[in-house]
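Researcher: Quick one. two chains, 278 residues in total.
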Amino acid sequence: MSHDQELDARGLNCPLPILRAKKSLNTLDAGQVLRIVSTDPGSIKDFEAFCKQTGDELLESNENSGEFEFLIKKHA
Amino acid sequence: MPKRLKATERRASILAVAKLLFADKGYHGVSVDEIATRLGVSPAILYRHFDSKESLYEEVLNELACRRESYVDAIVTGDSDFASVLRRITRIYVDSVARDPDYLRMEMHSVLEGSGATRQFFENRWKPFSDYIEVGLKDLVDEGYNMTVSPPVACLMFQGFLREALYAKCILKSGHYREIELQSLVDQLLALFFKAIGYDEK
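Model:
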């Protein structure tokens, strides 16, 4: 799936991936998509909770060889 | 006659009582008989759930050491500047420790005993702060801030300040800070911390 901006949060632990994601999403327009790559296993739950609270849409959440990929669509 | 509990309930009650006693007296200060007496059951019931006192102790330690706070609320709500976020995540952590100060006691026992759980305590409880401060200060330097201490020193200083407040108020009940609430003490120590590292909150 295509995205408008990418955030490399590898090597960062909670709360940094969600803080960086919040800052990145603030620069996007409604409907645009942010791709995040993280290595913190806690980020799966964190991004689910993050999107519930912000109203942004978690389009995808995947794990591959210890890396986690999230696609978040900024809410309208 | 002790109430009959389901296996999971019994196991949880054993862990809860064992945590209280181990936190208070350490591994060597507590016997299986004492835990059983406190629970109102025979030692045989304990051995049905745990092979030995050592395995019970390890489970108590691991359960505490692997617990992580969620800081999503602290990130989503409010300003995203370095000091505001650090204040909010510290507040969540301090509330959690105040609710369960046995965590600090068990962490201390684990350090003194050289237990492998010490690393887990650090990774899950303290490293989020160290990482946040280290990365946050590097970002501030990139933005042109002139910090007076290096990030690793700032991390140690923060942990020292926070431990001082938590030990004084949650464990030692120190007379030194009797007049001040825990969160107010932490706020004051954080203000000192920001000043010490050369961070101007304006």
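The CA atoms of residues 21 and 191 of chain B lie 36 Å apart.
Researcher: Thanks, that's what I needed.
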